Amino acid sequence: MTRFFLLLFLLPLLAFAPAGDRPAYRLFTAQGQPADYDQMLTQLAQADVVLFGEQHNDPIAHWLELQVTQELNRLKGPGQLVLGMEMFERDVQPPLSQYVAGALPDSAFERQSRPWPNYATDYRPLLAFAQAAHLPVVASNVPRRYAQ
Q: Residue 9 half-sphere exposure, CB side, CA atoms within 13 Å?
């Protein structure tokens, strides 16, 4: 009986689910019009630089970053994509490069790179993809000692 009422309650919510192949979010143009994911990817693949703004603690935004990175890598082809990650400060570039190359174990990398608290859930999947796809990753944030 409880399952029936739960189903009865949740079924109408399906009417509000967005259509398309990425139901976790909606895209809009700068003018506020709905945007198409595949068209966006095609346009991004033609760009020299793509900046992805996000809320640091928004897991859906981080999931979307990974999805877009994977698709751009596929569209651009091998050797055409470089990731810059604000999460990593410039002075940790050596361990970051070693880690992405597979020459530094997880535990040593995490000790040396000073990752943010949400690294494991929000940023590590992107680095795992970079490792698997052999993508260079650039630590793009200013070191904390200069930012404070």
A: 6
Q: How far apart are CA 100 and CA 139, in angstroms?
A: 12
Contact 21, 37 (CB under 8 A): yes
Domain assignments of the chain as residue spans, ordered by start: 26-44+55-147
The model's pLDDT over 42-84, given as tens digits with 9 standing for 90+, comes to 999 999 999 887 777 888 889 999 999 999 999 999 999 999 9
Q: Distance between CA 75 and CA 30 in Å, rounded?
A: 23
Question: Residue 35 carries which DSSP code?
Answer: -
Is residue 141 within 8 Å of 90, Cβ to Cβ? Answer: yes
Count Cβ atoms below 10 Å from residue 117 Cβ, excluding itself: 9
